[in-house]
Amino acid sequence: MDCADPAASSQPRPSTVTAGRPRHFPSGWAWLSAGMWRNWRGIAGALVATCLGLPVAIVVAAGAALLLGAFGLFGGVFDGPERVPGPLRDLPLLGSALETFLPLSSGLVGGLVGALAGLVLGFLGTVLLFGGFWFADDPVAGLGSFLGIVAVDLLIAAVYTGYRVAFEPWLLRATGARRLSRRERELILPIVRDCAGRMGLENHPPILVDDDRAPNAIAYPRHLVISRGLLAEFGYHPEVIAGVVSHLLVHWRNGDPISAAFVRGAALPLYLVHGWAGWAGRRVNHPLVSLVTWVVFWPVLLTVNQVIMPLQAVDVRRAEYRADQGAVLAGHRDGLRRVLGRLRHSFETGRNGWAAAVGATHPPNELRLERLEEPGRRYPLPDPRAAAEPEHRDDQVAAPPVEAGR
After folding, report:
1. Is the overall model pTM greater than 0.70, yes or no?
2. Residue 391 counted as domain residue
3. How would residue 381 be classed by pLDDT, with cut points 50, 70 and 90?
4. How far is CA 172 from CA 26, 166, 222, in A?
5. What is the model's pLDDT at position 136?
6. Which of 62, 140, 240, 329 has its CA 20 to 30 A from that of 229?
7. How large is the average pLDDT for residues 387-392?
């Protein structure tokens, strides 16, 4: 992939599979290893879900819950009233009340208890059955076989991560990323070099631009990609660019993109099914197709959305806080605050429900802004620097001078 102008460019060219990595790592393997093992919660969740067949356990648990729940419901309705002593049923007012109340309440309680028992017994039964299959005859050999499965899963994750890293230039080109133009290079590269120098980095990755109109910026293992929508939203303001770049450089330096790829690789079969189901729903965009997709793939969707992603998101949110401090270290907290203030709806859309709250990949935006506050300086609400309207339109490339670190 052309990551620089053929004529001249000071950007590093990713000529090898590890070019574009932070130079403070002694080798490419040390770089990959540091990134792959960073998110231990996400890795543990992916291994448990994949190696223990969590979707199968969920299906069995749901079936057992329905079966025992129905048994408890009907048993409570027809057998509950018979448990009431005869003298109580013969009372004028209380007897008729009990005859009405007990069938309904007994059925409800019996159904809930049966469903809960079925859910627990079905899930644990599947896990124990799986364990008995491996450990019944020879526990040592069974443990060895299970560890072999875990090792294969980790190997798949490592191969997938290596594939993402090695073919990253071509994958980014396929998704629309391009090299910087001359004007973009003259504006952005000095800012990137300055931020890297202030943060004590020996080098920086190639910078690419995505012509998407939506404001966005992403750190990859070997590249940083900034959308033209983000540049245009803030009128190509150098302080904003510096704040965003400082944030991305921390992700790149810490290997956060490698960590995300490794967790995805550890649960690759589940993520492939999850991705295909999501693609089918978006591609057809029909209620019937969405319903059929959910009915067929709901165990996998539930496992990925409610187990793997929330566990992975714990470290991802912490990584966002760490990356925000990169802007503070580089002296560009104001630039990042302006981005977070204006584009806050792009980072969070509400936290109602398990998936939205526990599975959120970004911390609450207001708390991120709070951590970026300069000591001794007031930050009132509403924030005048987070105006709703862009300062410049897309065709206005000229930018005001860089604001000195305040």
Report:
1. yes
2. no
3. confident
4. 26, 12, 11
5. 61
6. 329
7. 46
Residue 378 lies in a domain: no
> Is 85 within the bounds of a domain?
yes
Residues spanned by the domain of 232: 177-371
- Provide the CA 23 distance to its chain's centre, in angstroms: 27
Q: Tell me: pLDDT of 35 over 80.
A: yes
Are 146 and 242 found together in one domain? no
Residues 146 and 255 in one domain: no
